[in-house]
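During the second year of the project, the team shifted from modelling isolated chains to modelling whole assemblies. The rationale, set out in the original proposal, was that interfaces cannot be judged from single-chain predictions alone. As a representative example for this report, we include one of the complexes processed in the last quarter. Its constituent sequences, exactly as entered into the pipeline, are reproduced here:
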Amino acid sequence: MDTRSVPTPLDSPSLDASALAHVPDVDEAGAACQRPKTLPVSSLVPALTLIALNFVTKEFSLIDMVIDSISAGGGHRPKAQ
Amino acid sequence: MIRNVIADRLIGHALSEATTTALLHLVSQDTDQLMQHPPIAAMFALLPELLHGVARIVTPFRVAWTLMYAAISRLDALQDGDPMHPEAASPSTSLGAHYNLVFATYVLAASLLDELAEVVPAARLLRVQRLWSDSMLRMADGQQHDLASEEGAYDISTLAVYQQIAQAKTGATYALAFGGLATLLTDDAALVTAMVQVGEIYGTLVQYSDDLHDARTQPNQTVTLPAVLRCLPLATTHSLTQIEAAFWAYLLPIYQQAAATALAAFPELQTPIARLFTDVFAAPDPV
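Output from the structure prediction step:
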C-alpha cells in the first residue's frame, strides 16, 4: 500500500499543541488503571533435554514397564484426538 | 455459540456480505472443532469452576481465546503449506484472501475482549489485554523460530530448541487461557502468576502430545518430538512407538509435579489440576 500521499495524524490541524492542552487530566478511576506490567516468562517448565538424558539411562526398564502396563490394560500415550 | 457471538459483533459494521459470509464460514467449523478438542474442552470445563467464574465473564473470554486459537492455527497451516480442511475454506479463495480472512479473524478475536468492559473492573481488563499481547508476541517468536528451523541432523541438544519453540508457541497460548481467566476473576497476583505458569506447562504438553500423534501425518514437518526422539542414543531394539510411549510415561509425572510446584501456595488447586493433566494426557492408547 502506498501511503506517501496519505496525511498522517500529525498533519491534522486538530492535533497541534493547543489541542493537546485541552486533553483532560487522568481522573481518579483512570489513575487506578496504571500501565499493566509484563509478567515474567515462566521458568518452571522442566527441561526436556535433562528428562531425555535421564530417560536414556533407564530406557530398558522404562520401556518394558510401559509395555507390561499396556498389556495389563493401562496405557500412557496421550489419547487420539 | 461462537458463530452467534461473532455475528452479533459484526452487526452494524459496513463489511460486505461476501466478507462477512466468508469470515463466518472460515471460523465456524474451526471453532466448533476447537471447542471439542480435549485439552481445550477440559480446560474450559475446569478453570471457571476452580476460579469461581461466572458465565458473563468466562464466556466472552473463552470465545475470544478460541477464535484467536483458530486464527493462529490456520495461520500456522498456511505458513507450513499444510492442506486445509476441505470444508473450511472456499476452493476459490486465493492465498492472499485466505491470509486476509485470518487477519480479520484475529482482529475480531482481540476485539471481543472489549465486551468484558461492562463486567470486570477496568484495571483487570487492561492486565488481560497486556497478557494477551505479550502471549501473542511470544507465540509469534516461537513460530518465527519454528519456520526458520531446518530438518536435518538432530541430536539431543535439539530437544532444547524444540522445547523453546513448543513453550513459546503453544505454552504461551495456553498460559494466556489459564492466566487470562485468573486475571479476569481475581486481583490475587500470586494466583495469576501461578496460573500463567501452570498454563504454560499444560500448553507445552499439548504441543508435545499433538506432535506425538500428528508428526507422521504432517506433510511439512519442522522440528517435532518424534523426530528428535529418534536421535536419542538408545541401545534398544524396541520400536519408536514403544519408545515414545515410555518417554511420555516418564515425562508426564515430571510435568505434573512442576504444575503442583507452581501451585504450592494454593494447595486446594493442586489435586484438580493434577486430575486435569491425567484426564487429558494419560488416557489409554495401545502401543
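Chain B touches chain A through 64 residues (CB under 8 Å). The first helix of chain B runs from residue 2 to 10.
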